[in-house]
Specification:
The protein has 19 helices and two strands. It is mainly α and about 350 residues long. The chain folds into four domains: about 40 residues, no CATH class; about 70 residues, Winged helix-like DNA-binding domain superfamily/Winged helix DNA-binding domain (Arc Repressor Mutant, subunit A, Orthogonal Bundle), CATH 1.10.10.10; about 140 residues, Orthogonal Bundle (Sec63 N-terminal domain-like fold), CATH 1.10.3380; about 70 residues, DNA polymerase, domain 1 (Orthogonal Bundle).
Length: about 350
């Protein structure tokens, strides 16, 4: 671990409102290891801190600056020159200034900003993209992809599957591409929209793993089938939930209610790793994919079923037991009562 990580963790030891000091402990397995830990982590120098601002993400940074209230070139440059990145890389800021007009024209052509003489303002699309923390490429991919998929279905060229939507999400730069053997062959069995599959070729592996996840395969089954490790899967699922939310917001911006509903549902399926029929059950606090599947298999298909059920019947569901059965029934009752009050 880097020294600054350890210092940061130790700095959080103790509760400010209760404790006068905190204690951080590093366990050494030998005298030699003790000396090494003391030399590196106690007496050692902190690593150089690097700005997370970068030349590669400059376009997104400029858009965020405009969304944040900079409406002239000099205001954008004033903000950029005050960043830690500018302090560390002052030589690169001259290049940014030279390329500013080109960057702004490109953002305008893609619909992120509007240029009116020397005035600059973000469009609703640009504002949404920046506030969703999307790269400009991902924002364009979601916007244009939603339009393409909606047109495909509208023109009767094929019905949309969950896999088609996962391809849309996995094609975003924020999602790690995963390599899956015979990915294209497998993908063509999950959708009729082959042209869409080939247009998202680099995202097929990640979409296949995500599709298996929402079909309720476990981490071990995913590792066995695709050779992907739990850490890779967890990282992608975490990002995909966020991208699915961003996609739903983009569909809302496009006033595509049908796509909004599909992406919103897919976001919940990605979060819990479930098939559609379990969506109601996982809405009960304390119920995850395993318990939800157990409840469904035992005949409890909705929170209402759980709320009406006898606790002794809930106890018989695998992985529940007496204590959890009472808690789940209580949560289901509370959820039902809240819905009644709203109505």
């Amino acid at each position: 671990m880097p020294v600054f990580w350890v210092k940061q963790v130790f700095g959080r030891a103790g509760r400010p409102e209760y404790d006068t000091y905190g204690t951080g402990i590093i366990v050494a397995r030998s005298e030699d290891e003790f000396e090494e830990i003391e030399e590196v982590y106690i007496q050692g120098e902190l690593e150089r801190i690097e700005s997370q601002f970068s030349a590669e993400t400059m376009t997104e940074q400029i858009l965020a600056t405009i969304v944040g209230g900079a409406h002239r070139v000099d205001q954008i440059l004033e903000f950029l020159s005050s960043t830690f990145y500018a302090y560390q890389h002052s030589d690169e800021m001259a290049f940014v200034e030279e390329e500013m007009d080109t960057l702004l024209v490109d953002l305008a052509k893609k619909g992120f900003i509007e240029l009116d003489g020397d005035k600059i303002r973000a469009t609703p699309f640009g504002t949404l993209s920046s506030r969703l923390y999307l790269s400009t490429n991902s924002a364009l991919g979601l916007r244009d992809g939603i339009r393409v998929l909606s047109e495909l279905e509208k023109n009767g060229r094929g019905s949309l599957s969950a896999f088609d939507l996962l391809l849309l999400l996995c094609n975003c730069e924020e999602v790690l591409p995963l390599h899956v053997k015979d990915a294209m062959e497998i993908a063509t069995s999950l959708t009729d929209n082959l042209e869409w599959v080939y247009s998202c070729a680099s995202a097929v592996g990640s979409a296949l793993v995500a599709h298996a996840w929402i079909e309720e395969l476990t981490y071990f089954e995913l590792k066995d089938r695709f050779g992907t490790y739990p850490g890779e899967i967890h990282n992608n699922i975490y990002n995909l939930e966020w991208i699915a939310y961003a996609g739903a917001r983009m569909a809302e911006y496009l006033k595509d209610e049908k796509m909004y509903g599909r992406l919103h549902e897919l976001m919940a399926r990605i979060k819990h790793g479930i098939k559609p029929e379990l969506l109601g059950l996982v809405a009960i606090k304390g119920v995850g994919r395993v318990i939800a599947r157990g409840l469904y298999s035992a005949g409890f298909r909705s929170p209402r079923d759980v709320a009406k059920a006898d606790v002794t019947l809930l106890e018989r569901v695998p992985a529940i037991g007496p204590k959890r059965a009472k808690k789940i029934k209580q949560e289901a009752l509370q959820q039902r009562n809240q819905k009644v009050q709203v109505l």
